[in-house]
Amino acid sequence: MATVLVVLMVVSAGGLSPPCAAAAKEEKPVVVLPPAAAPGEAPSADAAAFVRSCCDTALQADRDGSSFCYYHLLPYAAFFEGNQVKVAEVAATILSTNLWVYVDQLRKVQGGAGKGDPNLNACVDDFSVAAGENITREALQSLGRLAAAGNGKRSKEDLENAQKWIKGVEKPYNGGIGKASGCEIGYLFTYSDDLPAQKTLGYTFDTASSLINHIKL
């Protein structure tokens, strides 16, 4: 099971009074992936075929997405041991890491070229909430328990925790669709050179979301 470590990251702001300074603290999740295959080390044919099957099943209507899923998760093929929930767990762990990289990039733009941009501010706020420590930790722990439980013994509550987290990420990712969020991610193209994580965010989100939503109790 992927291990979730939590650290406390303190964001300081000069000139704030003590109460405001305390409010500026945030907890940032740090997650650890299972060991990946060494460069040039290929998984067994069966392990690779299992990853391919999971990706094709979860993303059957998206050939590019399925291909991304396969090559993205193939280095961890030996860890999965035929367990689809482990595949979803690793995909979610990768997504959570990428989300915080993206949030960090958004914040750098927020303090520079995007200063005063209300849409950028909304995206920073909404993605920070979606990637927050508590909900991320609960989701990854739930996925770990689901993976360990096995077919027919999995908790509905654990699955709902994971689905709640991925829906929370979907909210800012889909932006103004249905007014789910004030963040219109498409309008951030102006800062694309400063947001390299955005280039693969869609694929990592679709991979994790599709795999989580294909978990069977």
TrEMBL record:
Q: Which domain of life is it from?
A: Eukaryota
Keywords of the record, alphabetical order, are: Signal
Signal peptide residues are 1-23
Specify the protein name: Pectinesterase inhibitor domain-containing protein
Q: Which organism is it from?
A: Oryza sativa subsp. japonica
